[in-house]
């Protein structure tokens, strides 16, 4: 299930300025555990695709259509910038995000989300909108540091490219019979919807199996979606069902 498209202004700097300070000479600081960058070589893109396969297929059981076993590859990869977080000591890619700027979305012919939703009402924003997706973090590095670095990297990317809107799909699993998704849907509809002029329509709507939603399910939000909402994102309507 892919809950509806979320879009939010993204014009804040990546980090606040830090006042300069002088300190007495001492030991050199320890190297940072992680580094964030954009992929510059095909090998780096493939490392991101390998991590995506590990997380989505091996870890979450997603059925991926890919031309190469062990890699999550789709046609949008060729048009996107790939944000990477690398563990400094090992050189391993442990976090990734895929960024599709509007000029390359035009060359690709559509956004990824166009396959899930009718985005007609977002037309006025599309020339200023970067689509994000395929976000994942290696299971051994999920302490918050990697995702924070990725968001800082995205903020710098938006500042550098001059785009002001960020949008993407966020998935909610249905393996509990849809109870979690139903709770997420109700929570979002009650407090986190965009104005009507930015509402989109799912191509394959998902309907909750019942209106009887346990209180725990109503309170639960997937971590990625919760993070988006904290950054000011809004949800643009009803969820779409993704059978894969």
From TrEMBL:
Any Pfam family: Acetyltransf_5
Entry keyword set: Acyltransferase, Lipid biosynthesis, Lipid metabolism, Transferase
Keyword Lipid metabolism in annotation: yes
GO biological process assignments: lipid metabolic process
EC number from the UniProt entry: 2.3.1.-
GO molecular function, one term: acyltransferase activity
Residue ranges of the region described as Disordered: 1-31
Positions with biased composition (Low complexity): 1-13, 20-31
Domain of life: Bacteria
Name of the protein this chain belongs to: GNAT family N-acetyltransferase
């Amino acid at each position: 299930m892919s809950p509806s498209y979320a879009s939010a202004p993204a014009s804040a700097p990546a980090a606040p300025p830090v006042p300069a300070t002088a300190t007495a000479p001492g030991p050199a600081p320890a190297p940072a555990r992680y580094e964030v960058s954009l992929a510059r070589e095909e090998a780096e893109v493939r490392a991101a695709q390998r991590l995506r396969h590990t997380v989505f297929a091996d870890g979450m059981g997603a059925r991926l259509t890919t031309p190469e076993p062990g890699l999550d590859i789709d046609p949008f990869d060729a048009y996107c910038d790939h944000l990477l977080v690398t563990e400094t000591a090992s050189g391993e890619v442990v976090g990734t995000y895929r960024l599709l700027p509007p000029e390359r979305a035009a060359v690709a012919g559509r956004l990824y989300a166009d396959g899930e939703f009718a985005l007609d009402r977002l037309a006025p924003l599309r020339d200023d909108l970067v689509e994000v997706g395929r976000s994942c973090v290696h299971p051994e590095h999920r302490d918050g540091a990697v995702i924070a670095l990725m968001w800082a990297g995205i903020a710098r990317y938006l500042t550098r490219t001059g785009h002001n809107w960020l949008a993407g799909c966020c998935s909610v699993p249905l393996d509990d019979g849809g109870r979690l998704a139903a709770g997420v849907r109700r929570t979002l509809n009650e407090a986190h919807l965009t104005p009507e002029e930015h509402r989109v329509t799912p191509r394959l709507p998902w309907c909750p199996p019942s209106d009887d939603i346990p209180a725990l399910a109503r309170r639960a939000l997937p971590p990625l979606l919760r993070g988006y909402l904290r950054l000011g994102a809004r949800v643009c309507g009803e969820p779409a069902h993704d059978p894969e």
